[in-house]
Amino acid sequence: MIRVLLVDDQPLIRSGFRALLDLEDDIAVVAEGGDGAEGLALAREHRPDVALIDVRMPVVDGIEATRRIAADASLAGVHVVILTNYGMDEYVFDALRAGAAGFLVKDIVPEDLLHAVRVAARGDALLAPSITRKLIDRYVAHPLDGGTGAGLDGLTAREREAVALVARGLSNDQIAERMVISPMTAKTHVNRAMSKLHARDRAQLVILAYESGLVTPRDR
Questions:
Q1: Which residues contact 182 (CB under 8 A, 6 or more apart)?
Q2: What's the DSSP call for residue 122?
Q3: In this structure, what is the dihedral angle of CA atoms 132, 134, 138, 144, given to the nearest 10 degrees?
Q4: Contact 126, 80 (CB under 8 A)
Q5: What is the 8-class DSSP label of residue 126?
Q6: Per-residue DSSP letters for 68-100?
Q7: Where are the alpha helices (DSSP H) in the chain?
């Protein structure tokens, strides 16, 4: 059973999501909260598998709530998915850096919401290549000062190559094709890089690749 926490300051949004999720045999909404502070307390109480958290809320917003969940070792099994009305807005990028596994637009179709919850519960990132490209576009518009890649020194050459391809928006299958390896081996390289870099998901892996200077916007 996938345990889900809903955190949104709009009761109508919460009730709509809950009604949909509770129809599924393998998903149960264990708690609801109206702001980030309440959501954090409920996460600690219920230890859900997935926390669907609105990005904009009173008291404590979704970004700060995500940051606090990611920093709490006891909540390592909680996968935060940010909810937003605006797609790839400026807040979502900050939320991904704070430790969110991905994000969903609130007008998502029911089938995609259910799929997203199941993907997040498995510990996979909710970043399709199209979303990764939007992250890259953000760096094009507002690039950070690149480093020398020193933060990636612990990676093997093949792991660094895989990380660079993730940062360019490639899926595991595309990485496998580019590196002439099997999809399973590509996934292994990516997962090992995430483990070594303490990245919670592919979103943070993309960010680390850019912040370290391994990849720059002109490499797209």
A1: 176
A2: T
A3: 10
A4: no
A5: B
A6: HHHH-GGGTT-EEEEEESSSS-HHHHHHHHHT-
A7: 11-21, 36-46, 62-71, 90-98, 110-121, 129-141, 157-167, 172-179, 183-197, 202-211
Q: Which two tokens stand for residue 141?
A: 């518009």
Greatest distance between any 2 Cα atoms in the chain: 50
Q: Residue 6 is encoded by which pair of tokens?
A: 């809903």
- In a 3-state reduction of DSSP, which class is residue 30? strand
The four Cα atoms 162, 164, 166, 170 give a dihedral, to 10 degrees, of: -90
**pLDDT of res. 60:** 94
Q: At which residue do the structure tokens 């996968």 appear?
A: 79
The tokens for 80 are 């935060």
**Higher pLDDT among residues 9 and 135, named by residue:** 9
Q: pTM surpassing 0.85?
A: no
Q: CA-to-CA distance for 85 and 5, rounded, in angstroms?
A: 19
Q: Give me the mean pLDDT over the 172-176 stretch.
A: 88
Find the range with the poorest average confidence among 22-26, 153-157, 199-203, 204-208.
199-203
